[in-house]
Amino acid sequence: MAQRKISIDRKLLKELYLRKSLSTRRIGALLNCSWSTIRNRISELGIPLKNPSQARMRYQKYDFAGGELLRAYMIGFRIGDLNVYKTSEKSELIVVRCHTTQKEQVDVIKKLFQKFGKVTISVRNGHFHANCFLNQTFHFLIPKDFSDVSRKGFPAFVAGYTDAEGNFILNQNRARFKIDSYDFHVLNSITEWLHVKGIQYKLRQIARKGDLQYIRGVKSKYNGDLWRLNINQAKSLKKFITKIIPFLKHRKRIKDARISLENIISRE
0.85 cut: is pTM over it? Predict the structure, then answer.
């Protein structure tokens, strides 16, 4: 007697195979049948086969759906602190990496990406290594380019870059802000935005490529021309903090920004 053909709902199979990206073996185990049966039903029901790159994706990945402001923040944070690439030209996988000694930086990475894909964190000798595995909708993070960040999104972009590179400090009991960076084009664009907003600033070069520096007693050379952006004038710093603090995600930056704001208000 011929064995009864196992019937599988097309909508369910499409959900498991394409949306949840489960393997045919995993689906077979869930539906109590062989992987070959699943493979046959995929073909019979006209469900498109995953390409090799998609098939190798072990974890569920979700399309970017964060909106204009989150996208602008991610671009700023990426330029400041993240390495983003595809594993090969034809790959569907976008990898976001970061190496840091700051736990708060890792927390920002988790907050940004863990709802969209797999995030792994390893710790060695006090150094955190973060890896995020995302789909093609995060292709906008690959180039270090912010030319399409809108006027509306620019404060979020500045907040992202500040979370990666900036510092709020108290110097002689006066609040200060600074960013030291090789990214002159980024700092220059930020100063243009500051000028439009009536925020006073200073931008100057503090080292040249090849100059010697000492980090924890170890001699090395600067990789490029190093620039510093300062905001020191109290009224300007207050305005700057007010504009970007709604978008900050780094716990220490938020804390230090609030301390700076309190310092400015106490001196007014």
Answer: no
